[in-house]
Input
Amino acid sequence: MHTRHQHLFKTDLHELRPTQITVGYTEVEQKRGLWSGLGKGERQKFLDSHWFPAVRGPKGSFYIVDHHHLGRALLEDGVNQCYVVLLKDLAMLEKDEFWTVMDHHQWVHPYDARGRRCPMADLPKALGDLADDPYRSLAGEVRHAGGFPKDATPFAEFLWADFFRRRIKLSQLQRSPDAALQAALTLSHSAQAAHLPG
Output
């Protein structure tokens, strides 16, 4: 459905296609908490101003390139409709060429919860199918705690997640999340992190 903005479309949240394999479930829960604290009027205003940037792909599907955590949170809270802002229309491309272009523009992040690059076919078909990456949650917590600023680099927090994945054991993250957060904050200000965005 068209709106008064040429590149803004109202669509079904269930039909949005992810361009990443994982999210941090902790961050999804935080966004659910923010949403539940909004009144009915505030919720509508929020939805009207939070657009999902998307690329139209094969069969006319909208592939969102950001706000996966928000989308998953809204879906879990029963929200059905959302707005997407169209960045590019690539619906005319065959699937393999589409993914080559998406990869070139850094509009896709096909890495699993172990930090391994996967085939594009492994990308989930819906926001509800996104897997949990506890290190992506850790990266979000480090950013909120002042470890690094938000950055426009595509999938920047996944770079941080992979950095922490290689330096903090999963067992420590699961057993002592507060200690893991402190270790990650220390690492975020170390020379080892100088190459990362933010």
